[in-house]
Amino acid sequence: MGRSLLTNFILIFIVFSLLTGCQEEDLQTQPSVSSNSEKPSSDQAIEKRNNGHSDRKTLPLELKEDQFEFMIGWLNNETILYCENLNGAYVISSYHIYTGEKEEMYTSELPIIQAVLSPSKTKILIHTSPTIYEADVKIVSLQNDKLIFHDIIESSEISFTWNGYDESKIFAVAFYDDWSFSTYILNIEEQTRAETKVPYPFAIWQNSNSLLTLDWDHESPETTAPILSITNGESESVLNDRNFYFLYGWEGLFLAISLNKFDDSLADFNFYNEKLELIQTIQFPYLTEYSSWEIPRFNLVADDMFFIVAPKTSGEADNYDGGFDLIKIDLKDGSQDILIEDVANEPIQSSPDGNLILYGYQYEHVINVNNKNIERILIFN
Fold it and tell me: CATH for 3-380?
């Protein structure tokens, strides 16, 4: 692998790690994916939920600092999942943020490296490592605690992208010490792992069968690239009118970030449906790092509610001191609401109804979107 390819690989891997489970950094084991299974049914239902959250006091989770491993995220609108070390065992537990009720849900004798909820939050992927060159992958049903998939994959590092259209499928990338990688489709129903041809180690699901990835030029590295759609190993270039530098997807929608054609101080956040139809474009300032762009913290809820920690102006990430705002965007009409000004540039993860946001490098705070209060949700004693 030549220097140019290695450089490109590292840049994309860093971007990818910001949003996919870097537990020491962002802790977003299922990056910014809020379940679409709890969509608001009406304006009255939304208002009812909003009022219910506004008047309730959260109870912080109190743990010993040396027993806390990482926060996994929202199990439902009022319950979070977290991983802790209890007497040498690694335990995934649920915690109700209003009642303080705890429940142990999964225990492993091996250290849990990743825990990734499915989009419907009915299953959880548990990644442990019996050796430094193996990933032990188990998928457990949260409805009956049944083990529904198990595989051991050779790797030094591994990432997973769940298919929101068909939860029986997961895209997995196994990385090796020499910076090479293999890509697989895990199929829970068929109990199989099939190697698939993806030219670069980052892809999102376009639908139940196809993946989207950026087609980076390995010979002449660029900072933007066209999009490839891959189905059963066959590739097709799509959206050929422009290039992009980042992709991220949910069920029914994906985000492709590009530079604005008319103002090079802005990035276009382009939202497309699975048919590759443009739904909405929103402009934000962006920060640069090395020869690429820093990807902001963001989250989508219920197809049309988008949260982002956005810089106020563009600039270099290392020297930037202009501040960040937490912004809520309605993707139906593009309207924006600055929820909190001058927030720290730290990870966010919304509850399925969009009323609460876990916030911080350890998700140690919770933000109430309706009254804009920030409270501590994780306390070390």
Answer: 2.130.10.10
* Residue 368 contacts residue 375 (beta carbons within 8 Å): yes
4 three-class SS: helix
For 92, the token pair is 């995934």
What does R_g of the chain's alpha carbons equal in angstroms? 20
d(CA 86, CA 64) in angstroms, rounded, equals 10
Q: Can you read off the two tokens belonging to residue 70?
A: 């990482």
Q: Is the dihedral of CA 149, 154, 160, 165 positive or negative?
A: negative
* Distance, C-alpha 231 to centroid of its chain: 23
The rounded distance, in Å, linking the Cα atoms of 107 and 88 is 10
How many H helices and E strands in the chain? 2, 33
Sign (positive or negative) of CA dihedral 233, 165, 184, 215: positive
- Name residue, tokens 């997807």: 249
The number of beta carbons lying within 10 Å of the beta carbon of residue 68 is 17
Return the closest-CA partner of residue 189 out of 212, 206, 208. 208
**Residue 47: in which H helix or E strand, if any?**
helix 43-54
Write the DSSP string, 89-101. EEEEEEEETTT--
What amino acid occupies position 127? H
Edge-to-edge strands, sheet with 315-316: 292-294, 287-289, 315-316
pLDDT in tens, the chain (381 residues): 333 333 344 444 433 433 333 333 343 333 333 333 333 333 444 444 444 555 788 999 999 999 999 999 999 999 999 999 998 999 999 999 999 999 999 999 999 999 999 999 999 999 999 998 999 999 999 999 999 999 999 999 999 999 999 999 999 999 999 989 999 999 999 999 999 989 898 999 999 999 999 998 877 777 889 999 999 888 999 998 889 999 999 999 999 999 999 998 999 999 999 999 999 999 999 999 877 889 999 999 988 899 999 999 999 999 999 999 999 999 999 999 999 999 999 999 999 999 999 999 999 999 999 999 999 999 998
